[in-house]
Amino acid sequence: MQNLLFSNLFSPRSKSLPIPFAAVLCMVMLSVSMPALAADKTRVVVVDAELVDDMKQRPSDPDKPANLKRTLRMQEQVIEGLELSDRYEILQGEEVDAAIAEQRSHVSRLRDCSECARAIAAATGADIVFIPWAQIVSSLILNQNLRGLDGETGEEVYGSYIDFRSNDDRSWQGATRYMLERFYKKYHEEVPDGLRDWVKQAE
Asked: What 8-state DSSP symbol labels residue 41?
């Protein structure tokens, strides 16, 4: 009887599989393929990069447009660098922008506010909140930093930095690439191919 059943199922004369068997077969195939297709990615938010300019005469003085432009580009590069990995899903859009703006209305330095990171994560569903920031000590002494705060605890779980020289576009962009390279080597032991090529371009 069992042999007869299977012979009927796979017989050339049978143009289609019985519906119950086809359904079971589809479920088995999905159960095998779904983990590979839906591998969990870490959902992250990258807030707008912060700038600390020690060269300003007064903290209240406006930042130079060129430095603000470089800081914005730093944030964009961090996002691009994380997108090169299959580990991260970058959350962006109006909801994310609103969550960040809400915290910015209360605190000027998100990098020092773990509660702010938790609030942003709660509003956006992020697992990690990345905060890039740069410091200008002098025209020849600068550094870039990247903090990753846990969305539930607000604790720092990722951190990377780079010291660099010269306050110009090329130096800033090269520094961001090297900082991302350090990040991947420290926490993931491998650098995405795209980022490796990116770093070579900065050399």
From this structure: P
Is 17 a residue whose pLDDT tops 90? no
The Cα 31–Cα 124 span in angstroms is 29
Coil, helix or strand at residue 58: coil
39 pLDDT band, cuts 50/70/90, is: low
- What is the Cα–Cα distance from 88 to 79, expressed in whole angstroms? 10
User: What angle (nearest 5°) sits at the alpha carbon of residue 188, between those of residues 183 and 191?
Assistant: 70
Instruction: Please tell me the pTM assigned to this model.
Output: 0.78
pLDDT digits (tens, 9 = 90+) for 141-159: 999 999 999 999 999 999 9
| Cβ-Cβ contacts under 8 Å for 84 (sequence gap 6 or more) | 192, 193, 194, 195, 198
DSSP one-letter code for 95: H
- How many CA atoms within 13 Å lie on the side-chain side of 133? 15
Query: CA-CA distance, 143 to 17, in Å (whole number)?
Result: 65
pLDDT attached to residue 178? 95
SS3 178: helix
Q: d(Cα 90, Cα 154) in Å, to the nearest integer?
A: 18
Instruction: Evaluate the CA torsion angle 73, 183, 200, 171 in order and state its sign.
Output: positive
- Residue where the block lists tokens 């299959």: 86
